[in-house]
Amino acid sequence: MKLRYFAWLRARIGASEEEVALPAGVGDVGALLDWLAAKGGRYEAALANRKVIRVAVNEEYVGLDHPLREGDEVALFPPVTGG
User: Fold this and answer.
1) d(C-alpha 26, C-alpha 11), whole Å
2) Which element (helix H / strand E) includes 37?
3) Residue from 48, 41, 44, 50 nearest 79 by CA
4) What CATH number should be reported for the domain whose range is 2-77?
5) Which is nearest to 1 in space by CA: 83, 52, 46, 66?
6) Distance between CA 64 and CA 33 in Å, rounded?
7) pLDDT, position 40
8) pTM, full prediction
9) Is the pLDDT confidence value at 68 over 70?
C-alpha cells in the first residue's frame, strides 16, 4: 500500500510517501496508525495527537474504523485551514 504524508506530517516523518506491505493484523485505519506509531521515533512523534490527523483512503476521507486492503493509497493530513 502507498502511504502519503502532507504538510507538517511530511516534515516530522521525513518523507512525503512510502510503500509498505499491509502489516499482518492491521485491518483498519486506526490499527494502521497504531502500527506506524509503534515504529517509534519520528512516526511516534508525528502521530502523538491523532485527534488532529485526517485520513483519506483512495482519495476519500474516512474514519478510524475504515477497512484497509493491500493496494490502497492512504493519505495522512493535518487539519486543513484556509480562506
Assistant:
1) 25
2) helix 29-38
3) 50
4) 3.10.20.30
5) 66
6) 9
7) 95
8) 0.92
9) yes
Note the pLDDT of residue 79.
Answer: 79
* CA end-to-end distance (rounded Å), the chain: 33
Residue with cell 484497509: 68
Amino acid at 30: G
Contact between 32 and 68 (Cβ < 8 Å): yes
SS3 call for 76: strand
Q: Where are the domains of the chain?
A: 2-77
Grid coordinates representing 17 are 510517501
pLDDT-derived band at 81 (thresholds 50, 70, 90) equals: low
Taking the CA atoms of 17, 22, 27 and 32 in sequence, report the sign of the dihedral they define. negative
